[in-house]
């Protein structure tokens, strides 16, 4: 499960606003995440990638290591956080596929919205092996696993169904439990 609680006031408020705007009841998100996990955090990079997703220029993402157990599936909703850790967009997963990194096809790589096929491959090899990447896998020997061609990755296609609007930042919603969705932590 994600590190952010789906019952956090920010998340509940965002889901309520999105549900109202879309005219459907959206269940709590199955995942809450941000793009570009790094140390130190890079809010600018996170926001740039989020912006590409909101504009429809990024409709896919690659995950490594693959969460186990996988707690979301096709049709499930997730919240994408911005560089400040606030809800930035609501997405719905449209496809999931597990494969070795070498088997990621060009169409998927292009859908990531981060350049051509070679840029996707080079960028992911560099990023996942970077000392700044915080989502790395630890092997049985206690050492960091090196990401490579044989690494299993989760290829996820998605659609952004609701982007956070600037006016959402000012909305205060009574969540019915004495909490207010004021954006504070």
At a glance:
This protein is α+β, with helices and mostly antiparallel strands and 185 residues long. It has helices at 9-22, 43-54, 106-111, 117-128, and strands at residues 31-33, 60-63, 77-81, 87-100, 152-163.
**Quick one: biggest sheet?**
5 strands, mixed
Total domain modules: 1
Number of strands: 5
Distance, first to last CA = 19 Å
CATH topology: Sulfate adenylyltransferase
Describe this structure in words.
The structure is a single chain. With 185 residues, this protein is of the alpha+beta class. The chain has one domain: Sulfate adenylyltransferase. It has helices spanning 9-22, 43-54, 106-111, 117-128, and strands spanning 31-33, 60-63, 77-81, 87-100, 152-163. It is globular. It starts with 8 loop residues before the first helix and ends in a 22-residue tail after the last strand. Residues 169-185 have low confidence and may be disordered.
List the helices and strands and how they pair.
Blueprint: H1 9-22, E1 31-33, H2 43-54, E2 60-63, E3 77-81, E4 87-100, H3 106-111, H4 117-128, E5 152-163
